Amino acid sequence: MATPDFIRELRTGVGRQLLFLPGTSAVVFDDEGRVLLVRRADTGHWSIVGGIPEPGEQPADAVVREVYEETAVRAVPERLVLVQTLAPVRYPNGDVCQFVDMSFRCRAVGGRARVNDEESLEVGWFGPDELPPLEEFALTRIERAGSDGPTWFQTTAGE
Known about the structure:
By secondary structure, the protein is an alpha+beta fold. It is built from three helices and nine strands, in the order αββββαββββαβ. The chain has helices at 5-14, 59-71, 136-145; strands at 19-29, 35-40, 46-47, 49-51, 73-85, 89-90, 96-111, 120-126, 152-153.
């Protein structure tokens, strides 16, 4: 994912130390039940669309923006699927971030899927039985978005 300007500005003051940030991800389904995936330019792996909300931006608005920016698909959020604090990640430049991911189930309502920015190498629709190799992050979110279960979250209460 491209680094937003506000993160670059923060980094000038805090250096490479851990930043705890919001993140959004989208599991977008079309009318045929296929899921929208992007092959990321940074890793070369297929995944769901994700990004960082801008300061003051609502997470549901951020996910709509990210889906359009990366794929040219217009999407409408239907429900919050999952909220999860992810493990810290160290980027090749040494920056360290930890994200709280808010994952939304979305419905495609327009546009034609295509690479729409420099963050993706490919974009495509995949049926549930046609998914390319995916990391657990994406598989978990697709599975939960495809069910009618409640929003999933993790807690350490009672440990």
